[in-house]
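I had to read the description of the data format several times before I understood it. For illustration, here is how one protein appears when written out as sequence plus structure tokens:
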Amino acid sequence: MPERSCISAAAGLILTLAGAASAGIVKGPYLQNLTDSAIVVRWETSTRQPGIVEYGLTTGYGSEVSHPDSTFDHELALAGLIPDTLYHYRTISGADTSSDAIFRSRVLPQTPFRFVVFGDPHGDSATNQQVANRMAQVNPEPALAASTGDLTGNGRYASWRIFFNNQRALLVRAPFFSAPGNHDYDSIANWHRFLAQPGNELYFSFRNGNASFHCLNAYDPFTPGSSQYNWFLQELQQDSANPDVRHIFVLVHTPPYSTNTVYSGNNLIRQHLCPLFERFGVRIVFSGHVHAYEHSLVNGVHYITTGGGGATLATSWNQAQPWTVRREAVYEFVVVDIDGATVTSRAIRANGTEFDTLVLTSTAVTENPPAAPPTPGFSCNPNPFRSGGTTITLTTPEPTELTVFDAGGRLAPFTITTGPRPGTVSLRPGSAPPGLYFCVVRQPALHAAIPLILTR
């Protein structure tokens, strides 16, 4: 996928669509549950009416599905879709017809595609609308939209109306999936009423292109032996055995790693699920709950908290940890591009500026042997450091290999020498410019990385 801008000034045309629905259609239409040959269209009307969806390859449509019963909440599946194809559609209820909208059916494994991720859009409706408007301006358009949960602050009907109306310009054309958050449990009945997701709608998997996505439920048991754990392990094993799957992404509401003062991280996820993330090479784990952005790197897995969807920001931080890559209390969302073996993640503020970019390249998803329980193997001091360098102290005398990479995954020109004391290694930055680097430490029982911050 060639380099391209995430935001288009011409996207005001998309926003015009958001206000184009007939007065009788009070919510939607929005798209859900994209599969290899089908998609679900949902909408709500102000009075009980039957429903029709017309769809096809042009605005002439040519195909339709319908339900004859009169209802407020409408749900129709469009089946027999051609993969990787642009479709037009519109909804009809009585005399009310939505504007023409488009979506792309599930893309093929070799096709590049884009998706957006956001979290915690509840709270101030105006702020959430700013983030939603910016996501609607993403260009090229995303093939999917995903959330880490807390779509509303109280689960009430009025709050769901606000959410869908704010997000309409995006969700009318991007199939939407979400993991549940704690506030979504304030009325789990409305979660099931307004969403049409795979499986039990609380933890499930879906695919697009060469990527597999797993939405987990942080509020249902996930320890070894539980139904959710066994299901997740089986899904990961199937990903590993499928040559079409090259990237795995996870969405779960509570982050396992956090340095924000409002939440210190979910230790149960660290203990029971992070070993699976590492074992099966999950690319990125997306979370919310903390109303801020934080990017962490632990044992090769990137953890991104994207909780800046509209709720009041959590602006207070504890001391940064060795796994901290970037953190900022800001309204934001994440755009992810997948092109073959390459994953590019960009964090976007509500004003459209980018502030954290991650590029990952990998050949395939493979299952690694279960990792041994994590053991602290080294420390780094000072960090951040200047041109004089820093010292790595190893806690075990085993044979050790150290390598330093820049944030783009390229080998960095650091000089690595034996330190002045037993078990220490000196790192000198040489010609490396100031910025973020990663020191990878390999021992027989340890493979870990620590961020290095070189300042001027």
About this structure: Residues 9-19+108-361 form a domain with the Purple Acid Phosphatase; chain A, domain 2 fold (CATH 3.60.21.10). The first strand starts at residue 25 and ends at 32. The chain has two domains: 9-19+108-361, 378-454. The helical segments are 12-18, 125-136, 157-166, 168-171, 188-194, 227-241, 267-272, 274-279.
